Amino acid sequence: MPQDKDRAKEGQFTVVDLSRSQLTICSTSSNGPSGFKFPPEVIKDLEVVNPSQLETLIKAFIAKHQLPPTPLIIILAPDAYFEKDLTGSESERVAQVQEFLDAVPLLSASFKVFKMQDSQRLIVINRHLYESVKRSFEEQGFKVVAVTPAAVLADTKISNQLSAQSCRLILRKVDYIKQNSFLTEPAATDFHQKQKKFFKTHQTMLGILSVMFVAFSVAMGTILVRRPTNKPASAFLPPASPQTTATPLVTTSPPASQSANFSQLSLTILNGSGTGGKAAELEKILKPLGFANIYIGNTSARPSQTLIVFSQSVTTETRSVIVDSVKQLYPNLSNQENSQTQSDVTITIGQTAP
């Protein structure tokens, strides 16, 4: 009988339990789970106070226990995230997500909706915290393959308390845990997600085509400007007049490389301000950046301020350009990352809209 797909040989993975106050590690190379508490000057209230000191603590712990680099699974303890069960229609769930995010006291929140046995559960985590822990282990040769909340393990009957027994059970459910991770993109189940997948798959080709189109437009413009007229120039000489210098009209457009980048992204603008026309107004600001796939509409959600949600595929530089552009209309905004968003960029205009 073939071995179960989600069964992994013990010793191939290391499991890290990350809670609000401590970090616990379990692997078959050790006698049992061991760990250390976070000093308040390093991590406090789920916020990383000193990233370099956190890296030093993890490095020293690995060296002390002689842990070999392996693929690594991070399990987020229940006190390391905020959660809410979503109910009602799709629009009602969207409103619940926005309302819950507004109430979460995190500076760099990431969220994902997980399908539980009989519900959909919103999990919100501090992206900076798990990325700092992830980076610290990867600096020592580990490869983080999953960042999974403990709530996901409820369906597998695995205890939230890390022990030798729960560690062995986790190692037998590696595939399931990886599929239910913050690092895993959702399946392309609707038009927007399929479109997003297409853009990612053909990113290089679309970039080349965009650059070629820009080059072709420039070449055609040059030919038309230089095209000679068939009529004699002397027949149309105007009377002599004082020489004047025309002031050229200055226009701005994004560089070809930037246009290619934005043209591959899907953008959704939702008006949650309660005032008509705000989504179309913002579209006029963002379209010149090079967006080719824009959807605008209204939402019943009424966030207190404008929110930008980026997918993991949007680069830091691109995010900065978009945020700066949106701030022209809505200076008091917030932005987050969500691995399950349908569009690459989703902007919900808040009630504080001018």
Report what the structure shows:
The chain has two domains: 14-184, Nucleotidyltransferase, domain 5, CATH 3.30.420; 256-349, 2-Layer Sandwich (Alpha-Beta Plaits). Helix 1 (51-65) packs across helix 3 (127-138). It is of the alpha/beta class. Strand 4 (43-44) and strand 5 (47-48) form a beta hairpin. The protein has ten helices and 15 strands.
Tell me briefly what this model is.
This protein has 354 residues and is α/β, with parallel strands linked by helices. 33% of the residues lie in helices and 22% in strands. The protein folds into two domains: 14-184, Nucleotidyltransferase, domain 5 (2-Layer Sandwich); 256-349, Alpha-Beta Plaits (2-Layer Sandwich).
- Secondary-structure element order, N to C: EEEEEHEEHEEHEHHHHHEHEEHEE
Strand order of the largest sheet: 7-9-8-14-13-15-11-12
Q: What is the number of strand segments?
A: 15
CATH class membership of the largest domain: Alpha Beta
Q: What is the fold-level CATH name, i.e. the topology of the largest domain?
A: Nucleotidyltransferase, domain 5
Beta fraction: 15-25%
CA radius of gyration: 27 Å
The tally of domains stands at: 2
CATH architecture name of the largest domain? 2-Layer Sandwich
So how many helices?
A: 10
Helix content: 25-40%
Question: Biggest β-sheet: count, sense, barrel?
Answer: 8 strands, mixed
Spatial gap, N to C terminus: 66 Å
The pLDDT mean sits at 78
Q: Which keywords apply here?
A:
10 helices, Alpha-Beta Plaits, 33% helix, alpha/beta, Nucleotidyltransferase, domain 5, five-stranded mixed sheet, eight-stranded mixed sheet, 354 residues
